[in-house]
Amino acid sequence: MFNLTLRPIGYVHNARLSLDDDNWGSVVSEIRLDDFLPEESLDGIETFSHAEIIFTFDQVADEKEFSLSRHPRGNKDWPKVGIFAQRNKDRPNHLGLTIVSIVKREGRSLLVKGLDAVNNTPVLDIKPVFAEFLPRETIRQPEWSHELMKDYWD
Amino acid sequence: MFNLTLRPIGYVHNARLSLDDDNWGSVVSEIRLDDFLPEESLDGIETFSHAEIIFTFDQVADEKEFSLSRHPRGNKDWPKVGIFAQRNKDRPNHLGLTIVSIVKREGRSLLVKGLDAVNNTPVLDIKPVFAEFLPRETIRQPEWSHELMKDYWD
Prior knowledge:
Elongation Factor Tu (Ef-tu), domain 3, homodimer, 154 residues, 4% helix, 1 helix, mainly beta
């Protein structure tokens, strides 16, 4: 079996302490680089408006403890779907991924808006958003996913 | 030091054998789930048009062997920038991330278009694209990044 060992490149610092489902839009977070990385790793990031943050949901249970097919948020009005058709945190490898707005870079820190991760979350990567990497065709998604997102960024 | 151990959820199968920089747009890849995951993990994915694929650049050198600030593609006409202002594969944790078009789901396999990963690449996660998670403001990026992407999807 092939396993991969990763090391956090930094940690999230913000005022958000609990894994609530909604109201993440106004959260400002600082991502502070870990000491093993040089400050220059962030050079030029401020020339981009957005970044993709890959992080780990380090507070979730082991994957043996959850089902890999379920109703999103346990809502039976919505269809039962597989974990790879959901963005839920209870997933194999516990990886989170969010596009954030870049607010400011200050030395070893990057300030971002709209990161849906709690204080102390380990960050695994930061990638600048290139428009060329966004979907090049119209996006189609089921109605339940729009309903689920209704208050997410409020 | 906090380390994280991940296990591939599946592997890429396609006709692309080398890590060339350009011409990824027409590549069709099969992502086949590893045996430890039930087939239902993919249920409902076909109701989305796009997915985010997190994978690992498993053929790159160890990070001690590359610089964390450099000219993208070694092109001195472009500014020297930090690794977190680039999407280059030679990065801490070796994580790749691409939005793909979903072509078809067939049992334990997902067929996708536009995945810039070579044959046998280990996949770490599949997340459906929700329009609500794309940038909600205009995207700004430096000119060099547009130039770099000129032939990427051709």
